[in-house]
Amino acid sequence: GAYHGHVDGLLAEAGSGLATQGIPSSPGVPEAAAGATVVIPWNNREALIEASERHELAAILAEPVPANMGVVPPEEGFLELLRQRADANGALLIFDEVITGFRVGRGGAQERFRVIPDLTILGKVIGGGLPAAAYGGPRSLMEQVAPAGEVYQAGTLSGNPLAVAGALATLARLDRRAYARLADITDALADGLAREAQAAGVAVQVQGVPGLLTPFFSDSPVRRYADARACDLEAYGAWCRELLARGVYPPASQFEAWFPSLAHSDEDIERTVEAAGAAFRAVA
Hints:
CATH superfamily of the largest domain: Type I PLP-dependent aspartate aminotransferase-like (Major domain)
Number of domains: 2
Helix content: 25-40%
Strand order of the largest sheet: 5-6-7-8
Order of helices and strands: EEEHEHEHEHEEHHHEEHHH
Number of helices: 10
Number of strands: 10
């Protein structure tokens, strides 16, 4: 359920086991590339421990809050276990904060959950609307990257002046007080959706963190990708069509996150919740 970009080694999916070497999830990905990746279910401590004990790991890569299976926050202690298993194996812990970075907080999900990775991958928000991405970590690691070090890294658009200027301007305008407002907006939307679903007699789990959420059509909380796939996807689709008919445009797929933002007023949230209630009643 996680997505980490168009990299051959990461376009892998799990086999039938608990912690398995990856198999290609896209045509054109060599088995050897996918096979170098071990895939484990999110929030599965047993699988994480098994994989870290069975394999010689170079790195552990994870979204601290996955948002490509819908929003599935980490269970208490799971991110800490990622950190502990990486340290125990002499591996790097890499957080993909392309979605969560500068969205769930000024310091990203790692600040919110107080688990610090060795490397962080950033994108989306950092560019302020321009195409920008970044990665970073401690000096000891970054000095190993070319031109200072021997690890090759280059790109046609690397260091693009316009994108860098946009990123710097965006970072200068990010105000920690705004994140408190964003949390309030997210809570109002999440609470409203949950309340309206319950009133309509529709089983829905609304999960999220400040700045992103997902309403899952499920009787029980969604802990990992298998749970997300087991939700009533047809009901979600029917509900979305009812929302569209009422002028509210949600993500068409349950596997995509909802992104409340500072651009949404209290009136916007109230109108969305009201439309959601009518849509829930229509599909109940």
